[in-house]
Design brief:
The chain is α/β, with parallel strands linked by helices. Helix content is 38%, strand content 24%. The two termini are 21 Å apart. The relative contact order is 0.19.
Length: 261
């Protein structure tokens, strides 16, 4: 699938939903006044300065902004990998600001898939084992986990590479394994940090096609941090950050930015 195919598919899906009068889905993410400050060399460095954000089920939201604007920090908070200093945050019905460590562990296991720019795939595990281990952590039997991993890898075009280890896979293939792993178990939310940052244009188009396919066909909710304008083209919504805050949209623009109109 090319980027143009993904964009045309997104526009067609939007048109069908609009004509059917579908009501907005309940939010998967509700953030109010999120703040996070780090201390580096004894100096306080604010990363987020009061971020408000809602993401509805089935959205593909892209976070954009210059390096250091807070995109990655926000993703880490949404994943429960870091804790805000102030504000409110509910993801998939879980209050992350009040959750215990055990509840956070369960939240990350059951509700969130994560896909990073340089994903840390296990060097000794095959592609199918990478995905199956994610399912095993959720309580799936190993044999069933392997069978499901085969289906997910086929969905991302890697059925013929399922027994290969990361060293034998290209960068684009590794990202497809990471996507299959992130989708394992049908998480409420998939978070991705620069998923196309190290890929050439052809492979970028392949990954974008797979992301939009998962979003359009299965209703998977995505929040993706990126500098890549091609991702903005296939997003349902673009949220722009600068200096740790959400930049208001221009007059007459869609709330928090816009993807294809």
């Amino acid at each position: 699938m090319t980027v143009q195919d993904a964009l045309e598919g997104r526009m067609a899906t939007t048109a069908v939903n609009s004509s059917a009068g579908m009501a907005p889905a309940a939010p998967v993410v509700v953030a109010r006044g999120l703040a996070r400050t780090y201390t580096l060399g004894g100096v306080a460095v604010p990363a987020l300065r009061g971020v408000d954000l809602e993401v509805a089920a089935g959205e593909l939201v892209v976070l954009m902004g210059p390096s250091g604007c807070g995109k990655t920090t926000l993703l880490h908070l949404l994943a429960g990998l870091d804790a805000a200093d102030d504000g409110e945050l509910t993801v998939a019905g879980v209050d992350l600001r009040r959750a215990t460590q055990r509840e956070l562990d369960r939240f990350r296991r059951d509700h969130v898939g994560v896909m990073l720019q340089s994903d840390n795939l296990l060097s000794t595990a095959t592609a199918r084992e990478q995905v199956a281990l994610q399912l095993l952590a959720r309580g799936t039997r190993w044999r069933d986990a392997l069978d499901t991993a085969d289906v997910l890898l086929a969905d991302v075009g890697l059925a013929h590479r399922r027994r290969h280890r990361p060293a034998d896979l290209s960068g684009g293939e590794q990202q497809r394994v990471a996507l299959a792993r992130a989708l394992a178990g049908n998480p409420a939310l998939v978070l991705a940090d620069e998923p196309t940052g190290e890929l050439d244009s052809a492979t970028t188009g392949e990954v974008l096609g797979l992301v939009t396919r998962a979003n359009q066909l299965h209703g998977t909710t995505f929040v993706i941090a990126t500098h890549d304008p091609l991702l903005a083209e296939v997003a349902t919504r673009v949220v722009r950050l600068r200096d740790g805050v959400v930049v208001p949209p221009p007059p007459g623009g869609a709330v928090q930015g816009t993807g294809p109109s």
